[in-house]
Amino acid sequence: MQIHADPITVNCRKVLAGLDFLGIPFELVHVDYFTGAHKVEPYLSINPNASVPSLVDGDLVLWESNAILQYAADKAGMERAYPKDLKKRADINRWMLWESSSWFPACYLYLVENCVKPLLGGQPDADVLAAHDAHFHKLASILDNRLADRPWVTGNTPTIADIALAAPMHLHGWQKLPLAQHKNLSRWLTQNVESLPSWQKTWVGEGFTTKKQSAVLAEA
Ligand SMILES: N[C@@H](CCC(=O)N[C@@H](CS)C(=O)NCC(=O)O)C(=O)O
Questions:
Q1: Nearest ligand 1 atom, CA 12
Q2: Helix (H, G, I), strand (E, B), or coil: what is residue 12?
Q3: Nearest residue CA, atom 15 of ligand 1?
Q4: Predicted model pTM
Q5: 3-state helix, strand, coil in the chain (%, to 5)
Q6: How far is the CA of 85 from the centre of ligand 1 (A)?
Q7: Nearest residue CA, atom 11 of ligand 1?
Q8: Which of the listed CATH numbers 1.10.1240.10, 3.40.1280.10, 1.10.10.10, 3.40.30.10 matches domain 2-75?
Q9: pLDDT value of position 216
């Protein structure tokens, strides 16, 4: 199984953390996001959307990060992470669809304004952020309410829905995501998700780096 990805991006980290969480071995084919390798051949023949990640498994070519996690979990028979029970699966699928259609774009705006723009020498647009505020809090409250009485989004154990939902927030400090009022969501993210070994192994830090400062110093 090959994963074509750049580990620094939201949806790639999602898949890399998710596959590690599922215990599935794969070959990482690096697609350099910052040089635009996802916008040209040969990658475009794999994913005509010009976005990462993608999976290649024999004759199956699959894009959409959540579809990749669902396929991989089923292929590995990881029922705990993606139960076959009809209602449990419907719940997980619902949150993964919500993540892709609503939550990812809501969090991505903060990534663009507070991380990408300053990195390229620009400034966050305070008006854009202010106009988005109510929409973000509406969605964050939905997730926060869900987490009020359970440690993980769909129950007492983590599933691929938790990995998917956490990914758009993976740089929450640098993104300046306004999480303070969403106590359940914050607890789930910082105490539960960020404690998962698979989350820690796929660490991405400020400046879009996968190298921790100690590793950088050791190399110098
Ligand atoms: N819904 C897709 C979204 C994929 C996506 O937008 N990936 C971003 C990186 S996180 C990307 O490659 N964007 C293209 C670009 O910025 O040029 C998925 O979940 O795989």
A1: 10
A2: helix
A3: 51
A4: 0.96
A5: 60, 10, 35
A6: 30
A7: 51
A8: 3.40.30.10
A9: 64
